[in-house]
Amino acid sequence: MGITGIHHVAIICSDYERSRHFYVKVLGFQIIQETYRAERQSYKLDLELGGDRLELFSFLDPPARPSYPEARGLRHLAFAVENLDGLVARLNQSGVATEPIRIDHLTGQRFTFFPDPDGLPLELYEIAEITPNSPKY
What is the pTM of this model? Predict the structure, then answer.
């Protein structure tokens, strides 16, 4: 087909400054470019973390997500992490509530969910060293 990978994930936020702070200061994304689009009265913020790109958009009065997390469309966005406990502690210290850490019954890896400022479900998925006894996909 010619597809080589995912180029970016795009998120529409309701409060641009709050979401900008969350993704840059709390999660640690780096700003590639920030553009104000006067004709739309909106921002587009291009972010990068570990080679992955995220686009953060603001629009005037965007509709709310219909449900959590089983709305049609994107179910959640998962970030690979090496130290789940450390990142959960950092999020909690920043006032971000996380769900209890769970174990993926298919892989044996640990993960948790937390919301972004608009309630978008985000996941932290710990990528630990796989041993011969680790469950496989």
Answer: 0.77
